[in-house]
Design brief:
alpha+beta; 211 residues; DUF4391; coiled coil; six-stranded mixed sheet
């Protein structure tokens, strides 16, 4: 488990951010404000990766990367809260979640207005490489750390993301079909769903074999 990031002192910020800063700026509903209050103990801006702090050139897409540490009140990552933080902060963010002695990570792929979230498991052994010719390459390396091993067989970053998204979508379909089959009472319908399930499983195997 990665207890701390190996980054220069110049990148260290360690600044507490009041939760109210986010929900006041976003004009949140009472329900979402309650989620902030009930689920988050504390938000700390830990590191800022920029040309001025780490000496790595920015690009048009990635000018800075922030690292936020979020102390939670329960061992559940509040995804709605992440969306609010990501909308409030114009930069790419790597999240480190803490609940008691437990640690998890998340990152958002912000590209062309689409937000795709990647999460680690709790206490999963996760390390990050913060080196690169520019901050965009550093950001891509951070995201790669969350990607499935099958998708990593691709060479270009866009291919890796596309393949990972495809695998996740099919796996989600398979889980939904398995759930439907377990609840289905009619035998004929169960047989029909099983045929679809076998086809999707075969397609998933084919994608993985082609990598």
């Amino acid at each position: 488990m990665n207890s701390e990031f190996k980054l220069p002192k110049t990148a260290f910020v360690n600044k507490f951010i009041a939760k109210s800063k986010f929900y006041e700026k976003a004009a949140l509903s009472a329900k979402l404000q309650k989620e902030f209050i009930d689920k988050i103990q504390k938000i700390t801006w830990k590191y800022k990766l920029a040309e001025s702090t780490v000496g790595i050139a920015k690009t048009a897409k990635v000018t800075e990367i922030q690292i936020f540490e979020i102390e939670l009140k329960e061992q559940v990552i509040p995804k709605n809260v992440l969306r609010i933080i990501d909308k409030a902060i114009p930069y790419q963010i790597l999240y480190r979640f803490i609940y008691k002695e437990n640690v998890a990570y998340a990152v958002t792929l912000k590209d062309s207005g689409i937000e795709n979230y990647y999460f680690s498991g709790w206490n999963e052994d996760k390390s990050f490489d913060f080196t690169g010719i520019d901050l965009e390459k550093v950001y891509q390396k951070i995201i790669r750390a969350f990607i499935t091993s099958e998708a990593k067989a691709k060479t270009s970053f866009n291919e890796i993301i596309d393949t990972d998204n495809k695998i996740k979508a099919i796996e989600s379909e398979i889980r939904a079909l398995e759930n439907k089959i377990s609840k289905e009472k009619q035998f004929n319908r169960k047989v029909e769903l099983n045929k679809i399930l076998l086809e999707r499983e075969k397609y998933l195997r084919k994608i993985k074999e082609e990598l």
